[in-house]
Amino acid sequence: MKIRIAPETGLVMDPLTSVISKEKGVAPNRSMIALIKKLDETERAVDGLMDSLAADKQLHNSWRGREKTSIGAGTATNFFYGLIAGLILSGAFLLLLSVLNGGI
Asked: Which residues cross the membrane (predicted)?
């Protein structure tokens, strides 16, 4: 399947390989509906992927009203990991103090 880029110059493009070349003879007039459907499906998937990278955008495979869930989930995750890191550092500090003061 070829797409005519510039009919007056005879340039065509193969959408699968993105190769631009000269048209050989008369290309058959094929329906582009299947290709357009594939491109629309790919575009929706790419939009969903790009929106998943932004915290304030709604995901395409999600229900409405969940635009800010990534922010809430990130806050909860950061709190949890911060708490764990703080407890580990506090424990290490207390262990160091006890060793320096002649304990253990």
From this structure: 79-100
Which pLDDT score, from 0 to 100, does residue 30 have? 62
Backbone angles phi, psi at 53, to 5 degrees: -80, -20
* Calpha distance 48→39 (Å, rounded): 14
**In the chain, helix, strand, coil percent, each to 5?**
50, 10, 40
Q: pLDDT tens across 78-98, in order?
A: 999 999 999 999 999 999 999
d(CA 3, CA 13): 5
Q: Indicate the pTM of the whole model.
A: 0.44
**To which H or E segment does residue 13 belong?**
strand 11-14
